[in-house]
Amino acid sequence: MKNLNDAKQIYWNPLVETLPLEKLKALQLKKFKRILKWAYERSRFHRRLYDEAGLKPEDIKVYEDVTKVPKVEKSMMRDIQRKDPFPYGDALCVPLEEVTEFRQTSGTTGTPVYQPDTWQDWEWWSEAWAYLLYAQGYRKTDRVFIPFGYNIFVAFWAGHYAAEKIGCEVIPGGVLDTEARILKIQELRATAMMATPTYVLGMADTAKKKLGIDPSKDLTIRKITCAGEPGASIPSTKKRMEEAWGAKVYDHVGATEIGAWGFECTAQPGGIHINEALFLTQLEDVETGEIIEEPGRTGKIVITALDRIAQPCIRFDSKDLAQWAEEPCPCGRTFRLLKGGVIGRADDITKVKGVLLSPSAIEEVVHGIKGLGNEFEVIVTKKGDLDDITLKIEILPEAEGNRESILTQLRDQLRLKTNLGYNIEVHPYNSLPRYEVKAKRFKDLRGKP
What we know:
Blueprint: H1 14-17, H2 21-42, H3 44-52, H4 74-80, E1 99-104, E2 114-118, H5 119-135, E3 143-146, H6 157-166, E4 169-172, H7 178-188, E5 192-195, H8 197-211, H9 215-218, E6 223-226, H10 235-245, E7 248-255, E8 259-263, E9 271-274, E10 279-284, E11 291-292, E12 299-305, E13 316-322, E14 337-339, E15 344-345, E16 350-352, E17 355-357, H11 359-366, E18 372-383, E19 386-395, H12 403-418, E20 423-427, E21 442-444
Parallel strand pairs: 3-4, 3-5, 5-6, 6-7, 18-21, 19-20
Antiparallel strand pairs: 1-2, 7-8, 8-9, 9-14, 10-11, 10-12, 12-13, 13-15, 16-17, 18-19
Helix pairs in contact: 2-3, 5-6, 8-10, 11-12
């Protein structure tokens, strides 16, 4: 590995993080063939899937053959679970007694999927997070506060263990409420934190409004790792967080069934690196299924966790949308960049009044207007045969005098950025829902009674 005491070292694993692309692809192909064979021999689900497609593991000979392997969707995993070996069903590749960790997906897109991991898998999780935390500047000198209710969602569990692996001191803020967490950060002079963008902004708001604490001046947090939402890759949201805390904010992308596969580095290049040592990622045209190699073209992320063995993740259709960056990152990593991080989800982008709409575009507008609160809510309904879209917002108390100017700016920016008109509802400050984990701000009620 590397010398953890070398403050100038910017790579967790210098060898693989700077491998030439062809060598990196060769490593990925070797690992892909291994996990494919493992799943075919041990998972009833994968063997059935591949047999039905007429595919055998030995058919994968070169990197380009990877696309021959059928994709897996989350709905397929839901269908095979809650049966023997209970509760994981047909995709489990190890004896039940080797499963040491249980997690499940958040259920925001349907019935939760159960995720078993062996101890080896859990070490792999920590290693993936160690790559990203080290790339974001976490070192042995950091005292890391984690304001996360430790539970069955994976969230920041692996971040906790990876921070320990790096040598950081970790403060678990599990059962504390928001005010107590802020006071504990102040008391112990924590230097780093992990949370969702929504909660990062919510904590700053609580600190100022209820405790009279300005996080940018009165607290010592200097770096924040975000996950669970796209906010840290949305420029206006990132700016709000960095200004509120006086800290650098970094994005991270992962999923319970995949792992921690993407991260922003200290160079903040306007995108995220894919951890290509541990994951094989392809962008696929949403309409045609064609593999996208050129920059600037949006595609759907299809991803393989190359080393996860209990319940393999092979050619998983993440539904996340992204595009390759044009230039390599100045940090020197050869891991490829996704420009702007994950820019949306295929199942989030919906057509309203004939226009394709992404919720992240609305967030970019709301968080880019001074005087608006951090929280908002979007509701799409039908009025007769016509779509109707309502945006609920809050105006900061100190900005009430500029209400008309703020609303005019909001309407203009929404029309410019989304090509849609909205019914704007101004709600009393602090009345819209607040979230600690994944915010649920977009509600499409068309077709519902």
